[in-house]
Amino acid sequence: MLNPVHLRTLVEVVKTGSFAEAARRLGYTSSAVSQQISAFERAVGVTLFEREAHSIRPASAALLIADRGGELLAAFDGFEHEVKAMVQGLRGRLRIGTFPTASSRVVPKALAKLSADLPDAEILLDEAEPEDVLPLVLTGELDLALVYAYDLVPRTWPEELTVVPLLEESLLVMVPADHSAAKNNVKLEDLKDERWIASRDGTSGATCLTRLCAASGFAPRIAFRSNDYEVVQSLVAAGVGVALVPALGYKALPGTHAMPLRHKPLRRHVHVVHRTANTNPLLRDAVNALREVCENAVGGYINPP
Amino acid sequence: MLNPVHLRTLVEVVKTGSFAEAARRLGYTSSAVSQQISAFERAVGVTLFEREAHSIRPASAALLIADRGGELLAAFDGFEHEVKAMVQGLRGRLRIGTFPTASSRVVPKALAKLSADLPDAEILLDEAEPEDVLPLVLTGELDLALVYAYDLVPRTWPEELTVVPLLEESLLVMVPADHSAAKNNVKLEDLKDERWIASRDGTSGATCLTRLCAASGFAPRIAFRSNDYEVVQSLVAAGVGVALVPALGYKALPGTHAMPLRHKPLRRHVHVVHRTANTNPLLRDAVNALREVCENAVGGYINPP
DNA sequence: GTTGAGCATCAGGTCAGCTTATGCTCGACC
DNA sequence: GGTCGAGCATAAGCTGACCTGATGCTCAAC
To answer: At what angle do helices B4-16 and B30-44 cross, to 10 degrees?
Structure first.
């Protein structure tokens, strides 16, 4: 194999027209350059520079070699930069914020995929409600967050964020299995006297429930609040009350019955958000992994069971 | 710079899926391959293969690097072959300088032959008078030049040049067809009152005319100057004056009459010159082609028509 | 349990290639 | 025309990269 180091020196010699100058630019002594060029000439079997006491004259072969060789070396340099960039992408750190429901269903699969592809990437996961997580994305403490938004409680996104829709999910009404409303064409008004198990106050899940009931002419009696849908469903199973549960959180606990609302097909949307200006190279991969996992969930829809 | 030898080994390892097999194919010991891969990993700062006792598993980074790297190495191999071919003289670049008359008569045939023999050679042609072309040969900007010299205006060649005679040509006197001197035994004195069309001032063609006329006891009245003998002859045909034209430039335009000088058979010599030290392998082929073409012109003589 | 294949690691030797020193040539400049 | 400096070549010596060979580990196959 032609020695690429020698080739680089040759290109520099042709460019500068002098062994000494090439040596200065490349950090060699002129002796080294002289030896390298001699070695290269020996390798190709042709005199590439005619030497005079004070100067050299490149033969046409040298010009041709320098020409093509220069391109090649540039390509090689480019490759090296690519590799460097890639390595930085592979070993970077990505901080993800996510709401609890997503972290048990969507996120694990996506992270598994991500860390299989990028075994050296460091991925940190924080769990919190969108209201808490978004400020962290804005301040840069998180690179990326999964957030949800209810149809009835639309969010406004700060302009500096990129928002990528991941999936839509139905909202299910859950009642105890022995409840009289455990049939599929339930109307919300039928449940106006029930006690409700809702999300924590201030979450958009709770707001959604309030607005929904308001539209049907009543205010729900909130018996208990939890942001953990497993807890919510256990309470339903225990007969404490009824609840509105997004499909992602649905667990099919014995003693519960889930059904869509008859006349108001309600939806919750899940998005990934990140600052548009964030240049973390892992970002793209993470978003792609999330989208891929979610698309496998029936084209981005999670439907009632 | 990433070590290309290591890169080649990496590509082979990815291809074969094994250090040991790559080592066998590349003529190394497996120890060497192991060390090379370790060094490469150290260089890029990432683990490229997960090691198990009996096997390796390439990380995705290794696959990416091997992919692009393979292309690069292939390009480099291609380059090496190009260089080899060029060195053998199949390829390469030859820069030729020639005076206008030669470039329309002698050179095309020789170049046709040359490029038939060496279809990949790149041949560059520059047209200029010997006075301009010789310095370019000396500085190495041209590999080879065709020059002419008049008997009456001999040239001295710099010592570092090799000069190969190509052909000799007669000088013809051209007069308008209806001129009283349009007979074959004209003497120069008969034309001393004519107006002359000469080559540009400073060319040896012009000097030759001056000296020739001086030998016959007069100074020519120069009506017009051009280095393009086609233009010169058109002017003669138009009755502007008479001219001295080398046989190579003779065009037999209607309205002109050409004849040799009766008592002074004048000649112009055409040579190829190149620096003796020039090692361009195409040089020899080019000179041979030129000689061959010129010898076919009646043993190196171009005679009056 | 034994064997063999694959990989890592260590020690040792070789060689490419660098620097340093020296010499030559030639242009520039007094 | 002598001196000086810059550019190139060459010799000598040293260093570091890298290969081989030896050794050891692990695991699969028999």
So the answer is: 110
- Tens digit of each residue's pLDDT (9 = 90 or more) over B237-263: 999 999 999 988 888 889 899 888 776
Q: Which nucleotides of C are covered by protein (CB under 7 A)?
A: 4-10, 16-22, 24-27
Task: Tell me if B1 and A1 make a contact (CB, 8 A cut-off).
Answer: no
- pLDDT above 90: residue A302: no
pLDDT by residue (tens digit) across B277-293? 888 888 988 999 999 88
Superfamily of domain B169-267: Periplasmic binding protein-like II (3.40.190.10)
Per-residue model confidence as pLDDT tens digits over A122-144: 788 988 888 889 988 887 788 89
Please give, rounded to a whole number of angstroms, the shortest distance from the CA of B295 to a CA of chain A.
Answer: 29
Of B1, B47, B68, the CB nearest to A120: B47
**What residues 93-132 of chain B have any CB closer than 8 A to a CB of chain A?**
93-95
Pick the CATH number of B91-146+155-162+272-293 from 3.40.47.10, 3.40.190.10, 3.40.140.20, 3.40.50.300: 3.40.190.10
- Return the residue in A11, A55, A71, A76 with the most chain B beta carbons within 10 A, the one to mutate for interface testing: A76
